[in-house]
Amino acid sequence: MGYKAIAITDHMDQSNMEFIIPAMVKAVAALKDHIPITVLPGAEITHVPPSLIPDMVKEARRLGAKIVVVHGETIVEPVLEGTNRAAIEAGADILAHPGLISPDDLHLAKERGITLEITARKGHSLSNGHVARWAMQLGIPMTVNTDSHAPSDLITRDFARRVLLSAGIEEQKINSIFQHAGELVEKALRR
To answer: How many CB atoms lie within 10 A of CB 150?
Structure first.
């Protein structure tokens, strides 16, 4: 499908993080010389009280997560109010499907350099237009993400482009979003 890198960011919270990340780090290390793409161990912190998110982000990184995503306040699978803000303040790499993210949180995301997800996931994608419009207006970095739960959820570059276009992102901005994904990978590899 043309992937150069992929991050595996399984859903996790306090109950399973210490099991998932070390197991993923071990699996990625074992596969490193046997697969043609870069695989990054990661975490998607999900359904965690906002006050605990900063410690969870730190712990995920300590355990070896190269990419830390926080499950944002999506309109179809709600998490606690304040999750978007906590993820931004904690320095997560990506705020996934942040739903109807507030103006204050958008400005803080820009200030902190947090990447906002434009998702290909059914349901979560309903608020892509809102996220994209404000991210473009304020200059907040974006990435397109499959939010895959199964191999059949993986998408091609052309489909990703269509997701971005349908979110209202102008054609000339799309290549910079793809380039930003590469920058996220490079940053993660330096950790």
So the answer is: 6
Q: What are the tokens at 184?
A: 């996220």
Burial string for 63-95 (b: 16+ CB within 10 Å, else e) reads: bbbbbbbbbbbbeeeebeeebbbbbbbbebbbb
pLDDT band for position 1 (cuts 50, 70, 90): confident
User: Which pLDDT value is given to residue 78?
Assistant: 87
Choose which CATH entry (3.40.140.20, 3.40.50.720, 3.20.20.140, 3.90.930.12) describes domain 5-189.
Answer: 3.20.20.140
Domain spans in the chain, listed from the N-terminal domain onward: 5-189
pTM more than 0.85: yes
pLDDT single digits (tens) 29-59:
999 999 999 999 999 999 999 999 999 999 9
